[in-house]
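Q: What would this chain look like folded?
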Amino acid sequence: MSISKATSHAYFWDSVRFLMVLLVIGSLIFLASNMKSGQFFSFTSIERPVASKGSVKTINVGDYNVGVYWDVNCSSTVSSIEWGQIEPGSAKNVSLFIRNEGKSAASLFLGTDNWTPSNASEFMTLSWDYDNQTLAPPDEDSYDILLVALTLQVSPSIEGIESFSFDVIIGATA
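A: My prediction, written as structure tokens:
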């Protein structure tokens, strides 16, 4: 190795050391300027994603019955939804197929129940894209099937909840 190459390598490493020293000094100045008298500086923590699994229940009364399925052929019944990890301030969508299995034309409704922890409902909202259309009753082997998307929205201000569960309630009325 020639002397000029060795000298350039030395300058390079001197520059790296100089930048590291500046970074450390800058960090110390930042910490010192943000300390309050008698208190240590603390970083604001970002809430971790929350996880959930919830049951899906249908309300069937009299002639108004619905089935909730994962597929358009209505062969895989939905009994629970695994929402997975949801970041604060974000939403998760799940698509479901709903079939009128009653004897009368019906409109649908959506609700929730049994939130755990009980204050989780203060930070989350469940909605869907159903627009109040009527589902016709079955006609021999033909069913009226509707694709809907459920959306679970988590507030950006959620605190103290790492996991939750709740029941999704879907039913039919006149």
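The chain has two domains: 1-43, 50-173.
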